[in-house]
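Database export, one record per block. Field names are fixed; values are copied verbatim from the stored entry.
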Amino acid sequence: AKKFIALDDFVEITKKYAKGIIPSNLIMQEEEDDELAGKSPEELPLRLKVVKYPLHAIMEIKEHLIDLASKAGMHWLSTIVPTHHINALIFFFIISNLTIEFFAFIIPLVIFYLSFISMVICTLKVFQDSKAWENFRALTDLLLRFEPNLDVEQAEVNFGWNHLEPYIYFLLSVFFVIFSFPIASKDWIPCSELATISVFFTVTSYMSLSTCAEPYTRRALVTEIAAGCLSLLQVLPGNFGYLKFLGQTFFTVPVGHFFVLNVSIPCLLFLYLFYLFFRMAQLRNFKGTYCYLVPYLVCFMWCELSVVILRESSGIGLIRASIGYFLFLFALPVLGVGIALMCLIHFIKWFLSLELIKILVTLVLCTVPLLFRWWTKVNFSVVEVVKSLTRSSIVKLILVWITAVVLFCWFYVYRSEGMKVYNSTLTWNQYAFLCGPRSWKETNMARTQILCSHLEGHRVTWTGRFKYVRVTEIDNSAESAINMLPLFIGDWMRCLYGEAYPLCDPKNVTLEEEELCRLKYLTKHKCHMKMFDRYKFEITVGMPFSSKNGSKPIEEDDITKDIVLKASSEFKKVLLNLRQGSIIEFSTILEGRLGSKWPVFELKAITCLNCMSKLLPAGRHVKIEQDWRSTVHKAIKFAFDFFFFPFLSAA
């Protein structure tokens, strides 16, 4: 609390700091004055600004009043212009056109890139902490001159324990990276560039490690690099003779139902690497776990990630990445101009290849809500957003959002795959006997439904007679949005984004155009947007006719045994080519109102058995569905192999 401090007091205070205790007398009385020294009037609090700079405070109050008046005017204007309605319409239009396939494509990519960025940020934080380690050790060496009895080892343990936060966030980021990388589209990941970054951080993270465990860390890194190089030789196209033989698996030993032991030289190297991990953790009565082993795991993870990404890289890509990073460091202005020119040329080519009017209209429509939003939020400051991000850790923000997205996707996958699907041998005749009219007459329909609910989840493939198909719903969000516009704008945009009705020339008209020509003069528009239609169908299927003793078929067309199949728009071409009486083979899952009249199931696959090939686009049409189980299995297998291959691999 004084201006000067004695040497003994300084030593005592620094000893407490080394032990992780911040003394209360470090708080200075003149702290406020020191903080305000050299600050401009804009940086001072309002109460101090009024005292020290009254004129400046008055001018700021005037500007604040003007801002309040302008905000009130903007609020009145925003009530006249329905900006929220426009934003909501555009938002729902975008959401209605997004599909499960799009989310399955974009979410793994977003998780991978955000997790990789989080890994880089955490690694830079680790580098910063390594500099703090050097300063801390210099401080403890200084204290030992004045206090020989200081427990330096315990002080270092406390310091290391208090700086574990970036390592925990780094390991969480690695977890998300290794789970998202195998299921993300490799066409949208620059593997060569990311492999170069991984190699760079492998080297730099090793150089930032403590020298206390250097014998173990050096041997661990050499062992890991040797095992990685031997495993990479197996995927290289060239012939490396005995070197390639060294990386081969001699034989495999199954370990239970899920794991396989690979007996090879890289396997022995990994066993030695695990031994070195144990030796690092054993230092200082196993306090080396968080003093030496956890910091080395940063280097280990980057090295493993570089080996994995190198498998997906190409030689030309690695050369391109190396030259690109070299230019980035030493020729940044030239590189920036070159990238700008390349992007401009590609943009011009893409711009010329599309319709100019359509692009301009789309851009204008997309910018209208943004302009209104910017207009109503005049005081929105990018600087404030940056300050808020610096106040809250960007890594925590990334990990929280990734965790939320992963949990949401996990609940969706669990819901989609929750019901166990059983490939049943149940025939339609057996189902009709147990859950059809005969059973209703013996007891009643409600009792039959309760009994037949035990068949829920059976995947069946039956053969039946196609009776008829009808459209139950037509969804066209683009048409709905255009119908809300004034008539002349709507007609113009309908022709811009849609298709015009045919000219109906009798000499040159196709079958499809002839059907449209019948309706052309009855419609109220010159163009249509039916290309954006999404249909939902219902197909009524009857049981096939039975026969007795090889005689002619005896028709038993009992409509109470008919079933109804729901089909999505992807079955459109097949269903429009079917004719009444066609024999079809279909697959579905028994669910819903089992045992009732005309149960409704979802169509999974369909084949026409007696249709002419020219009438049907293809043989068997299967509903396109995401195989979530195989995707999750692929991610878990990759994560296990990431940590334990070539020692162990998942089956």
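Remark 1: Residues 26-33, 378-383, 385-392, 549-555 have pLDDT under 50 and may be disordered.
Remark 2: DSSP finds 26 helices and twelve strands in the chain.
End of record.
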